[in-house]
Specification:
With about 450 residues, the chain is mainly alpha-helical. Among the domains are: about 30-80 and about 135-185, no CATH class; about 295-460, Pectate Lyase C-like (3 Solenoid). It has helices at about 15-50, 55-80, 85-90, 95-100, 100-120, 125-135, 135-215, 220, 230-240, 260-270, 275-285, 440-445; strands at about 250, 255.
């Protein structure tokens, strides 16, 4: 007997429904993500367009709000003025202008009311039956105009509130822009006045120097150093405090931290003047160059002893053989700075950024470098005797031949650092110092275990 052929199983409707249901959330999620992405792009583009055309958009929206509100009010008044005509056209006997739909509706209404009045009000007087026949058209008329009136007022109020709110927002943004512009103009005027004041003070400095030069023989004038009066030193210090840091545009980018280019200009001017050491020290002790913008400044052999340079931008500055003894460079940006042979004895460099800076043969004796970023810094043959380097980042730094006697490297990071010819045995502390080569670490733990002991660290 031939084997029975198994019928092909029919697809279960439930499975396809489940597959469709399971597929819908994926499509819905994708659509939502695409919509959010497109909305963000449109919002960003609209924001930039709005910022660039704020004045024009303000006038357009104000004009549009008045025109739209006036048009809505006029259309509402016109509708109620021609209410009778519209009523006759829609519910009345004017079938030529009402259209077939309105004719059919009127015939159905008349037929329905005739049947109702014929059965239920058979014994009622004729005037009552005629009144009932006209109830439905009148109810429709009342309902239609009541709904139109309510809907129209709601629409007018909603549109007017929306346009008014948008216009108010744009006006507020415009007002903020005008306020910011006015503040910028005021600040520009203030800085302009300070620059004029700086010019006047520098003229006084020139006059005092010229008076002292006139008393010297001509052969000694070029190499001589001069002093300034205490009153003029006070004016210079007051001027430095008047220059305030601010954020400004560098190219097409707003700088991340506020800086003072004017303080930087004042400092460069002072370093170029033939002033003697006591005068400069008096100026640096009373003046401030905090957050001065000195990016790429050339300050080779500059006398900056005890200068207040906290938070200053010295990125890429040339400070070869500069005297920064006792200077405060905490939180300063010294990335890529050239400090070869610079004197940084007892300088304060708390959390200073010094990535890839060149400090070859620099003198950092007793310098305070807590938390400083010295990643990839060139410290070959640098004097770090007694320097405080707790939490300092010295990853991949070149410390070849550096003097590390009494240097505090507690919890410092030396991963990848070049320690050839650098003696770690005479350091002050290596507690939890990371990155010391294993062979050096083992030897030091055997010979100098006290270097790895925890103790109360006097963090100055």
């Amino acid at each position: 007997m031939p084997e029975p052929i198994n019928p092909t199983p029919e697809p279960q409707p439930g499975n396809s429904v489940q597959q469709n249901i399971s597929a819908r959330p994926r499509y819905a999620s994708a659509a939502i993500l695409v919509g959010v992405f497109v909305g963000i792009l449109i919002g960003v583009a609209g924001y930039h367009y709005l910022q660039g055309n704020l004045q024009k958009i303000t006038h357009v929206l104000i004009t549009a709000s008045y025109i739209a509100f006036g048009a809505l009010v006029l259309s509402l008044l016109a509708m109620f003025a021609f209410r009778e005509y519209l009523t006759r056209s829609i519910f009345g006997s004017n079938a030529h202008t009402a259209g077939t739909v309105i004719q059919d509706a009127q015939k159905a209404t008349d037929h329905l009311t005739d049947r109702v009045t014929g059965h239920l009000l058979r014994d009622a007087p004729e005037d009552i039956r005629q009144g009932v026949r006209s109830i439905l058209p009148r109810l429709l008329n009342l309902f239609f105009w009541g709904r139109i009136r309510n809907w129209w007022w709601q629409w007018i109020i909603g549109i007017f509130v929306s346009i008014g709110g948008l216009t108010g927002t744009v006006l507020l943004m415009n007002q903020n822009a005008l306020i910011q512009r006015q503040m910028s103009l005021d600040e520009a005027n203030r800085r302009s006045a300070l620059v004029v004041l700086m010019s006047n003070i520098m003229d006084k400095v020139d006059r005092e120097i010229e008076k002292q030069q006139d008393l010297l023989p001509k052969g000694e004038r070029d190499s001589a150093r001069f002093q300034l009066s205490q009153s003029l030193i006070g004016q210079i210090a007051a001027l430095s405090h008047s220059f305030k840091p601010y954020r400004y545009m560098s190219g097409d980018t707003l700088i991340p931290e506020p800086l003072s280019p004017e303080r930087g200009l004042l400092l460069i001017t002072l370093t170029l003047l033939p002033l003697d050491t006591p005068t400069l020290i008096k100026i640096y002790r009373s003046a401030t160059f905090q957050q001065a913008d000195l990016q790429d400044a050339i300050l080779s052999r500059a006398f900056l002893r005890e200068a207040d340079l906290r938070g200053a931008n010295l990125d890429g500055a040339i400070l070869v053989e500069a005297d920064l003894t006792g200077a405060n460079l905490s939180f300063a940006d010294l990335d890529l700075a050239d400090l070869r042979g610079a004197n940084l004895i007892r300088a304060k460099l708390t959390e200073a950024k010094m990535r890839q800076a060149i400090l070859v043969q620099a003198n950092l004796r007793w310098a305070y470098l807590r938390g400083a970023n010295l990643r990839e810094v060139h410290l070959e043959e640098t004097n770090l005797r007694g320097a405080y380097l707790r939490w300092a980042n010295l990853r991949w730094a070149n410390l070849r031949g550096a003097n590390l006697v009494e240097t505090n490297l507690r919890e410092a990071n030396l991963i990848g650092a070049d320690l050839r010819e650098a003696d770690l045995s005479n350091t002050f502390s290596l507690y939890q110092c990371k990155g010391i080569p294993e062979n050096i670490l083992t030897k030091l733990k055997q010979e100098k275990p006290e270097l790895f002991e925890d103790f109360h660290d006097l963090d100055l």
